[in-house]
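TICKET: design request
STATUS: open
ATTACHED STRUCTURE:
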């Protein structure tokens, strides 16, 4: 999509600090980190949210989680990390291209707030 920030990052038109890539995913550091490790993992193909991705390309959904695990392990957090999908504006989604937050390195408490 021409006006999608994450599509522009995937295409290389917008710079990002990329930490991991696969054929189907791209992982890059969040510009406003909420933990010492805060990386976003996105599918290379545009899907508006996690539910759309799961319905349209379930293997890409699984690849996001595999990529997130690889990022956490590479950053030294293989055993303790949180994965978050925000789906819809009411849940805090601000970029409408599926993205998985990988968070680690501090107490992440429950419930999230």
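STATUS: resolved
RESOLUTION: sequence designed for all positions
ATTACHED SEQUENCE:
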């Amino acid at each position: 999509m021409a006006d999608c920030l994450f599509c522009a990052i995937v295409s290389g038109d917008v710079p990002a600090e990329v930490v991991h890539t696969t054929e189907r995913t791209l992982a890059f550091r969040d510009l406003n980190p909420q933990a010492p490790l805060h990386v976003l993992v996105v599918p290379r193909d545009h899907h508006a949210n996690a539910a759309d991705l799961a319905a349209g390309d379930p293997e890409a959904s699984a690849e996001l989680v595999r990529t997130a695990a690889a990022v956490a392990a590479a950053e030294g957090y293989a055993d303790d990390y949180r994965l978050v999908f925000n789906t819809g504006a009411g849940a805090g989604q601000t970029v409408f291209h599926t993205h998985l937050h990988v968070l680690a390195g501090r107490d992440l408490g429950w419930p999230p707030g």
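CLOSING REMARK: The chain has a mean pLDDT of 95. The helical segments are 5-11, 50-56, 58-74.
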